[in-house]
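Two records follow; treat each independently.
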Amino acid sequence: MPDSENPATAVTFPPAFLWGAATSAYQIEGAVREDGRTPSIWDTFSHTPGKTAGGETGDIAVDHYHRYRDDVALMAELGLGAYRFSISWSRVQPTGRGPAVQKGLDFYRRLVDELLSKGIKPAVTLYHWDLPQELEDAGGWPERDTAYRFAEYAQIVGEALGDRVEQWITLNEPWCSAFLGYASGVHAPGRTDPVASLRAAHHLNLAHGLGASALRSAMPARNTVAVSLNSSVVRPLSQDPADLDAARRIDDLANGVFHGPMLHGAYPESLYVATASLTDWDFVLGGDLELINQPLDALGLNYYTPSLVSAADASAKAPRADGHGASDHSPWPAADDIAFHQTPGDRTEMGWTIDPTGLHELIMRYTREAPGLPLYITENGAAYDDKIDSDGRVHDPERVAYLHGHLSAVRRAIADGADVRGYYLWSLMDNFEWSYGYGKRFGAVYVDYATLERTPKTSARWYGRAARTGALPEAEAV
């Protein structure tokens, strides 16, 4: 019996397993007008009335730009072995073109040096959704040129930090960038054009391939290059052939559209067929698939909750229960005849069902999909309505239970033969949660948004103990 299913057996991890936490630039840095930084699409979007909860923005966020030393000291106190953060493209290359702003690069140099001085491995994500606004004004991700601009940016950052950062990720969750940004419009830049979203998906794939090549040309050979995908676990409502077909089509739009070209050098033929009413994919040029299909050193998987789908009447206008925000426009091109359903079980503050079996299923799928490719869980976590008690502490037993369940699923996958090398908790601390503003708290560290004081939650102490010992404490342990 796998150890995660036997309560009498400690859930222990391999000695080299990497225990980390993750953040992204726009969600934590603030300082949006300092040292040459210019607006990204998220600056513009969050300042547009009605786009974010309460009109909240990342202008200050949690002021990590000025407080990074304290934040790194807190990571070290908790016992983290790694920290995954993203670079703000518009802080480094404000127009998305041309030479770098050295003050922007210097911030990341200081951050990396601080991490290394505390024995924490830095992992850099080049793109976590914050395209420079000038590139969006020129057409954004639906335009091919944006992929080439990304490669230039990757070269700049690789040259600046490649001597001291070994773990690199090109893109974070390109599905969100393409389909929430350009189809449903619930993310920046807020466009609602399904054809543009498919073009954006292809050019994000191209950016990944070109960026991976640029990084390798700029860095020592020891460094690793990966991508982080929020691949969906898509389940049919029933075994009816129509529901099975619906699940396959959503799987193509959620997963195959990215892992097809990245891992196998081809889009699924069924994706072309399903979207033929929208486009003939003439934006895929000769040689593109070879450029995209760069060898990877690892694959990052982000997981929160599974999806449950069925066939439906295309004329029905019931709200989509897909967990991706409310919009009159679907993030699923050419899939209006597919319904999403709430999966049963307890839910987080995001309304997402808690289901660790989906993480195990996802890991095992990619163990088969890309045999021999090391895997990292680059995001996994939960939002809860955390409060500081009268003693100044934050108890979050629900998050501890969530982490225990999902980390146990990771360990079970390792026992089943998966090569999972590490886990990055989302998120290190409460922060700006995109269109939800500051209303959803994912952090293991509580942030008082009035004072910006940081307070480790029970989950932070629990996770730190796991990181130091390589074993999961009982879910009730503090």
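The next record belongs to a different protein.
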Amino acid sequence: MKSMMLKWYAKGQGALGNERGAQAIEWIALAGVVIAVFGAVITYFNGNPALVGESIGDTLSNIIKKLDGN
């Protein structure tokens, strides 16, 4: 019984420890979205508004690829 409780405790601590990493990834993703929006605004003001959507799409695709590990 004691070893089973220790295993559950270890699994619970591992899950709680991973929560910090998940939160860090969320903040990194949020920063990526903000950078994509700023990039789109800069592209728009440079006189080429047709590239705004493409710029946002490319930036978000790159962020997702990096999060997936590709």
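Discussion point: Residues 19-68 form one domain. How would you locate this feature using only the token line?
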